[in-house]
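Hi D.,

Good news: the full-assembly prediction came through. Inputs first.
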Amino acid sequence: MIAPPRDVTEENRTLVTWYHRVKRDLPWRAEPLPYRVWISEIMLQQTRVDQMLGYYERFMNRFPDVVSLAAAPVDDVLKNWEGLGYYSRARNLHQTAKHIVHQLGGRFPETYATLLPLKGIGPYTAAAISSICFGEQKGVVDGNVIRVAARFLGIEKDVTKPDVKAEIQVWADALAGGGNPGDVNQALMELGATVCTPREPVCDRCPLKPGCIARRNNMTGRLPFKPKKAKVPHKTELALLYFPKDGGSVWMEQRPPEGFLGGLWKFPTAAVETRDAAGTILEKLAPGRLSGLEPVVKHAYSHFKISVYPVLLHGVTPALEAGCWVPIADLDTLALDKVHRRIADRLRHG
Ligand code: SF4
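Then the structure:
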């Protein structure tokens, strides 16, 4: 059962004062326009501020407003997202920009309720935009805020459960309802990112220290409680690098627009059980033409790990329906995921 909101007046005041004193100078904070805050919040999902700043600047230079984003081809958006991963976020941004421009007359929705139906905007992003840009009293709850809340309130239950998240949402809403919702929300995000960090919270620098239950009871190391994740599966693939007789190009194909890494380009691939099972497949694909397996490229996605062995196939035209020859010098212009970018960089730069 969700407890009724506590009196959080003091916590609200403390957080806002602290935030004004320590907040980082970030590009979307100087002038928190909804477009800028939206892009920053979507980029910050799964990515730390210091890692995303360069991507943010590059994206803003290319697409400075919702009109320019809506008018761009999706390939251009994906190319400017390259390196951030989770490419469905970029495709959703693009679709939502088009919706805002073509269906809403270019006017950004201003409330939590009208932001929430937009593609790619969940409760967290809707609360962030509506509170920071329009002063709506709605609390943000993401991984950082869950960590702060679990420790501060001493929540020992599994924080991945919906009822526990709802309990934290009640606390965050009460805090936002105490005034300055945009600042108090950003204070919580900032606190989770810089002070109440996952491994070693710096409680001596924390404005919530006096009332924090985890600190008082020496529980910061075991809160928030999350059940252990199941082991992620491992896949093995061959990346088939087909070169024409005269060299200079390589065969590339584009993934379907929807789904995992949708819309990105790749070398043709073949799944194999293990590296040792590759020989039979390759002998069928290009008998006598295989010039050996290149060093493996390994990568961990959120839901599986992968080892990809690039294979060089010279003078072979692939028996594939989709795809085209791409000059090796032009590989930099295509949007590729991390694994295929690393292979392309080896081809381009040795
Ligand atoms: S006192 Fe420590 S554990 Fe508690 S909220 Fe602050 S940083 Fe986190």
